[in-house]
């Protein structure tokens, strides 16, 4: 009996998808719900599970092809038996104190491909290999780590066998469809030497956490993390691993606290070369992309900034009055960001060009608000997106911003969570900034800069009073937004913040 594999439901308004990666090839045995391939749309990445157990008889849509909803992807012959790799030969018993180091190559060769990197990401850099050629690997065991301009990606082994060949060495730049390595299925690779009893005990003690007395001793930290720990002077027990099975990754080390600094070294002699006292560090892909995108924004958009200020007494008073009841009911603190998000959504309805973008010779107006919220991380600035923020409540916005911010700081944001924003808010006030001109986040046409709340003398009703004031800055693309629209937008944000009741009344 033959079962068809078709494109699953892609979601509202999504009319096509691209075949990103096939995890199986014709002739392979597949089980029910086992992942067959991955599709990419302009919004999400979709995994396609097997609808039946059997043999993958035919792949109809190859990698790179564009398919529509419900299109035929492949055919599965139910109950069929796929070709199995040759059985492993029985091993001769090794001497007690010797380690088997011979690599026997047998079975099929399986390519290790670059996994899906997400929409708009076309290349990655091979950061770290956790295995070397000739090593035995198990299915789903981490082989290497890639760095893109947005996230780090771990590459698991697609099958068990021997890592026969590494095609992309550390530091190499690879495209989204590149082959990284070759695994020989069913081969017996070099096994690690069996540790002595004392060594095994040391391994357990080294990896033991505060609530874990018998941790796994077979989890190896990323080599790049080991190097970073050594450079930073941080011990293994000071770092909380975020990788698979608790593996410490490079970014985990960046978040760890280093020990108190030692006494300052003697000052360099006055005749020492300046070059000898410099440190040269290669920019990460994320930092390179931030630099490129910011410069592109300046070069492409006709960027202009308009300023205003807001008396935050109204928001602060309302927040103080209801913060305890709000937290008790919604299990989240009431912050300032939800007020700013709601105020911007309100203003964008009146001035829709600030929520638009240029596409060639067209202006695309967005009838929704996907609000980008800039978050500073150890690796650089990232902008996760609160989708349909105009339809969310204060509590929903606070919860989502909190969750996205935590993911950003931990380096766990997915590609989908950082794409599709229509407008951005950047809060330089958390770092003490009193005034700044934010740079646009292309292709968006507007970004609002929040700043430090500072008490200043203000004239109110002919009297000088002290008020908590905040400078606001709207940078906008003058190709889309006229000065009148930009000023109107910022005035509406100011009005909503100074009298938050206007948000309830839609005024």
Topology record:
Blueprint: E1 2-6, E2 17-22, E3 29-30, E4 35-40, E5 45-49, E6 54-59, E7 66-67, E8 72-78, E9 109-113, E10 123-129, E11 136-137, E12 142-147, E13 152-156, E14 161-166, E15 173-175, E16 179-185, H1 197-207, H2 223-232, H3 250-255, H4 285-300, E17 303-311, H5 313-330, H6 337-350, E18 356-359, E19 362-365, E20 371-373, E21 375-377, E22 380-382, E23 385-386, H7 394-410, E24 423-427, E25 446-450, E26 454-460, E27 463-477, H8 483-498, H9 501-505
Parallel strand pairs: 20-24, 24-25
Antiparallel strand pairs: 1-8, 2-4, 2-7, 3-6, 4-5, 6-8, 9-16, 10-12, 10-15, 11-14, 12-13, 14-16, 17-27, 18-19, 20-23, 21-22, 25-27, 26-27
Question: Could you describe the 3D structure shown?
Answer:
It contains nine helices and 27 strands. With 507 residues, the protein is of the alpha+beta class. The protein folds into four domains: 83 residues, Beta Barrel (OB fold (Dihydrolipoamide Acetyltransferase, E2P)), CATH 2.40.50; 90 residues, OB fold (Dihydrolipoamide Acetyltransferase, E2P), CATH 2.40.50; 37 residues, Irregular (Dihydrolipoamide Transferase), CATH 4.10.320.10; 219 residues, Chloramphenicol Acetyltransferase, CATH 3.30.559.10. Strands 17, 20, 23, 24, 25, 26 and 27 form a seven-stranded mixed beta sheet that branches. A four-stranded antiparallel beta sheet has the order 1-8-6-3, with no helix packed on it. A four-stranded antiparallel beta sheet has the order 5-4-2-7, with no helix packed on it. A hairpin with a 2-residue loop joins strand 26 and strand 27. Helix 6 packs across helix 7 and helix 6 crosses helix 8. The longest helix is centred in the middle third of the chain and has 18 residues. It is globular and about 90 Å long. The protein starts with a strand and ends with a helix. About 10% of the residues have low confidence.
């Amino acid at each position: 009996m033959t079962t068809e594999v078709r494109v699953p439901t892609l979601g509202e308004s999504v009319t096509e998808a691209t075949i990103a990666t096939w995890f199986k090839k014709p002739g392979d045995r597949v089980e029910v719900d086992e992942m067959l391939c991955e599709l990419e749309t302009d919004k999400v990445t979709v995994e396609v599970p097997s609808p039946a157990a059997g043999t993958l008889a035919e792949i109809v849509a190859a990698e790179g092809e564009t398919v529509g909803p419900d299109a035929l992807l492949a055919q599965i012959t139910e109950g069929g038996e796929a070709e199995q790799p040759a059985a492993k030969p029985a091993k001769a018993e090794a001497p007690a104190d010797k380690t088997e180091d011979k690599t026997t190559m047998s079975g099929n060769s399986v390519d290790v491909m670059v996994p899906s990197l997400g929409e708009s990401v076309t290349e990655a850099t091979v950061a770290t290999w956790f295995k070397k050629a000739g090593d035995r690997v198990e299915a789903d065991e981490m082989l290497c780590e890639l760095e893109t301009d947005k996230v780090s990606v771990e590459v698991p082994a697609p099958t068990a066998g021997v890592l026969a060949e590494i095609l992309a060495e550390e530091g190499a730049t690879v495209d989204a469809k590149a082959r990284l390595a070759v695994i020989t299925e069913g081969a017996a690779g070099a096994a690690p030497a069996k540790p002595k009893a004392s060594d095994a005990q040391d391994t357990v003690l080294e990896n033991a956490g505060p609530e874990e007395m018998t941790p796994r001793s077979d989890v190896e930290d990323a080599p790049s993390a080991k190097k970073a720990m050594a450079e930073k002077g941080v011990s293994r027990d000071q770092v909380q691993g975020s990788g698979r099975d608790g593996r410490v990754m490079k970014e985990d080390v960046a978040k760890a606290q280093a020990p108190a600094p030692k006494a300052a070294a003697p000052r360099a002699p006055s005749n020492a070369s300046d070059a000898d006292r410099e440190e040269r560090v290669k920019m990460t892909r994320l930092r390179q992309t931030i630099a490129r995108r910011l410069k592109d924004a300046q070069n492409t958009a006709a960027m202009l900034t308009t300023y205003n200020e807001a008396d935050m007494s109204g928001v602060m008073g309302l927040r103080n009055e209801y913060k305890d009841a709000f937290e008790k009911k919604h299990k989240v603190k009431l912050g300032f960001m939800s007020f700013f998000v709601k105020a911007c959504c309100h203003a964008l309805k009146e001035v829709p060009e600030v929520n638009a973008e240029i596409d060639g010779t067209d202006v695309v107006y967005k009838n929704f608000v996907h609000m980008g919220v800039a978050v500073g991380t150890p690796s650089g600035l990232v902008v996760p997106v609160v989708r349909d923020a105009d339809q969310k409540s204060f509590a929903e916005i606070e919860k989502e911003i909190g969750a996205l911010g935590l993911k950003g700081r931990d380096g766990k944001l997915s590609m989908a969570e950082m794409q599709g924003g229509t407008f951005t808010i950047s809060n330089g006030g958390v770092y003490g900034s009193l005034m700044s001109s934010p740079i646009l986040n292309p292709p968006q046409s507007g970004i609002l800069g929040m700043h430090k709340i500072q008490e200043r003398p203000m004239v109110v009703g002919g009297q000088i009073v002290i008020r908590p004031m905040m400078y606001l800055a709207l940078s906008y693309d003058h190709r889309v937004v006229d000065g009148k629209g930009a000023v109107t937008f910022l005035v509406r944000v100011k009005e909503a913040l100074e009298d938050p009741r206007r948000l309830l009344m839609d005024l």
